[in-house]
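Case 249 in the screening queue. Each case pairs one protein sequence with one candidate compound; here the compound is adenosine monophosphate. For every case the pipeline is the same: read the inputs, emit a complex structure as tokens, and attach any notable structural observations.

Predict complex for case 249.
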Amino acid sequence: MKILVPVKRVIDYNVKVRVKADGSGVETAGVKMSMNPFDEIAVEEAVRLKEKGAATEIVAVSIGVQQAQDTLRTAMAMGADRAILVLTEESPEPLAVAKILRALVEREQPGIVLLGKQAIDDDMNATGQMLAGLLDRPQGTFASKVEIEGESVRVTREIDGGLETVSLQLPAIITADLRLNEPRYASLPNIMKARKKPLETIAAGDLGVDVAPRLTVVKVAEPPARKAGVMVGSAAELVEKLRSEAKVI
Ligand code: AMP
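Case 249 output:
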């Protein structure tokens, strides 16, 4: 079984994101970019499924600018076998990404598409669900456990206040949540090996998908600055401040 893993290049999660002066978006020039953390978890899970013998090939795919090649090389250093870059200058919205992925699914015929649950730059949490809808395939979102059982896959889902276990008929769409696994670091030899793995580039237009944005960003703003805290001398003083200043008790 083949697993397709979509990986997005986003601002590194350690970077303090700065809003552009005109409020039209966030500053990306000269900013460190990395693989979306949930996609690292998805790659790790695909590699573990292959190590267990449940998968035979892992194909990483990224939709974005030329530099997304670096993200794909990271996925291959972690264990993906090959990669596809769908080149576009636009930053595609989830529906366009889902349509591009549908075209690749039709071409590659993977048993599982294993995405991150959410990209940390736009926090959409939509692409996996849209892809499942477009393909009319079962979906297991927010996965914290994935077990292949013959022609189906059992997915444990993180839901409000507990866990839900669903059994999906393959082929299926899965999105990875935080507790699914802890991604490995790519070793130096594997980084070197990844340089030689195949990376195919396709223009988004060649897949017949219109990536033009449908949403208009009206304004992007910093959250309000928080006031500095104060040190209190005793529990009694804290209670007094909570009562008279914060007025919360
Ligand atoms: P989102 O719906 O934007 O929060 O993204 C959810 C997941 O879809 C991500 O974790 C990725 O696995 C995948 N995805 C979204 N955008 C892209 C992209 N441009 N390239 C590759 N994968 C993407």
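Case 249 observations:
- The chain has one domain: 2-244.
- The pocket of adenosine monophosphate is lined by residues 6-8, 36, 38-39, 62-64, 92, 94, 97, 115-116, 118-119, 122, 124-128 (CB under 6 Å).
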